[in-house]
Amino acid sequence: MENAQKPPKQSLEIAIIGGPFDRITTVLKEFEPGDKEFIKPLQSYGVDPRSVGEVEEREVEVQVPARLHPTVFDMNRFNLNRAGGGGLGLAIKVYFHAKVKAIKEPKFVIKGERTLIMEHFCHIFKELLSYPGGFEVELYDHKRRHVGLGSSIGSMLAICIGINEVLGRPFNGRELRRIIGYHSCEESPNGNGYLMPAFETGMGAMVGVNGGWIIGTDDLEMVYRVPLPDTKCIVFIPDVPSLEDEFLGKETAAASEVELLLRRARYLDSMQSGVKARIVLYDMLPAMIKNDLRGIGDAMFDLSFLGSKRAECEQHGSNGAAIYNYISTFREIGAEVVGMSSVGPTIFSLTRNDDTYKRILKYLRAQGIPESRIIETEVDNIGGRVRENGVERIFQHDGWLQG
User: Fold this and answer.
1) What is the mean pLDDT of residues 340-354?
2) Could you give the CA distance from residue 125 to residue 131 in angstroms, rounded to a whole number?
3) Structurally, how many domains does the chain consist of?
4) What domain range includes position 246?
5) Is 4 inside a domain boundary?
6) Is residue 138 classed as helix, strand or coil in its secondary structure?
């Protein structure tokens, strides 16, 4: 579609309220895929410049696990020009699938889903690496969009891993995470063929590459990762008032999510991020080192009532009563770890006990919950896979801490 046929670009202004004396405005501007104003040079976020000057026609398939994002540590630590904030992340066996081919002709052939995001990241890699060729890309997400299952970040990561592979892996996992973090975007809520910048903590890229349960800190850095072997996961998408538009097909909840993240969530984190940090340092980390799933869950339960996570739960009606009811019920049934992912309303429970797993499912079905809202899965401890010429490689093997 030619620019003249498109509607004029719009912007969304959000007044930020962090601490008691913090009053600024963030502006989300619509942009077209490939707009150079929204492609940032590598050195601006700590990645050494490099280039790919030759085109080798290669094709790979990529599989990336979905992420759950139990909590952000401090929402005052990120904005549109600064990714970060830290948090907890978890990979589950629900997947994104991408196919990427490097071609000599300098054009992009985009198929599948999330095509605006895919096109923008093709432009990003071509620009950052001075790459003379083009790409054929095809992507399919897990169809659960804007409910806390990382549909956008998973799509971005899958396509970035694929492009990175066919170009000879110029970037490691850490560098890819920084590229994604500083170019994170969503489809505009106006549905007009434009994108908008998004806020990014880096957790989706961390778990998508590495799998397992991960602690990330500010500036997109991964601090600690552990696998959670033999751990089943029940993902439940409750029917709460906030879902009336989103779950019925609205492409994005950008406006409401941004307002939440930049207002009440930041205000509560300004008062309680220190308490959250102590829980992570003194309770969460020792439990992870010992692979104590119950200990991880005890710390997670406390974090669910603090700071930005409390604000996220509260947005789903009745000051979070519906969300907290499910979290408490699943814990009482026996689940070792329970939480709400991202801004929700997706709730997850982890257990290594078959009887507990069955009783949670029995409870949900007794409540008349449709099967379409329940996902039975497991923790993914492997992360991103790349298949080329019938041979599969595990992406995290380039070093877990720096990848």
Assistant:
1) 94
2) 7
3) 1
4) 9-398
5) no
6) strand
